Amino acid sequence: MQRSSATDPTHADPTQAAVTSEAGAEDPFALFRRWLGEAEAAELNDPNAMAVATTDADGLPDVRMVLLKGFDSRGFVFYTNTRSAKGTELAGSMRAAGVLHWKSLRRQVRFRGPVERATDAEADAYFASRARDSRIGAWASLQSRPLADRSELEAAVARESARFGSGDVPRPPHWAGYRITPVSLEFWTEQPFRLHDRLVFTRERPDGPWGRGHLYP
User: Fold this and answer.
1) Is-catalytic flag, 132?
2) pLDDT tens track for 98-153
3) Do residues 96 and 112 touch, judged by C-beta distance below 8 A?
4) What is the value of pTM for the model shown?
5) What is the pLDDT of residue 19?
6) Which end of the chain, C or N, has fewer beta carbons within 10 A?
7) Contact 184/113 with Cβ under 8 angstroms?
8) Residue 114 in contact with residue 94, Cβ under 8 Å?
9) Distance between terminal CA atoms of the chain?
10) Are 85 and 62 in contact (CB under 8 A)?
11) How many Cβ atoms are within 10 Å of 59's Cβ, its own excluded?
């Protein structure tokens, strides 16, 4: 049964401004910086939560939530175990797509493009900023591999904790950062009656100039 607009949860507040009317909507990274800042003030949890999609060797899509840990004009950076499912899939194609959805703001940003590894210096700096137990966990977890039971993981954590003692916990060689360098960036704003506003930036290559346009909702 189709819901009326009065009860439809996707019926947006008609005062929600379209992104195309915003000042500074000519530079996608500047606009993303502003939107992320507004999300950090509005979202209760993890405003940098991001879905990252990859494909396996058979072309079957795979998607999971990660945390966006950095961005600039080069692209969007996240970190993971290179031996995980996403690490293996990224190695096979070095392409990915991402999306951040901010429900409280009725906005989302999605992008896709080739992927490159972040530098060792970038990965080392971020890894060092993590809580010590998280760094221990990166050594203990055989990410994406079958786990017989929780005690197996807990034993691995205890083993790695004992190995490092009170000393420094360096970045594992199988833990790295990945940067999605977008060739397409879309800024979506919810509008009444599902007539959503979609501002899109595209370019033919990662270092090329941006073209700007709009899409039907």
Assistant:
1) no
2) 999 999 999 999 999 999 999 999 999 999 999 999 999 999 999 999 999 999 99
3) yes
4) 0.88
5) 58
6) N
7) yes
8) yes
9) 22
10) yes
11) 7
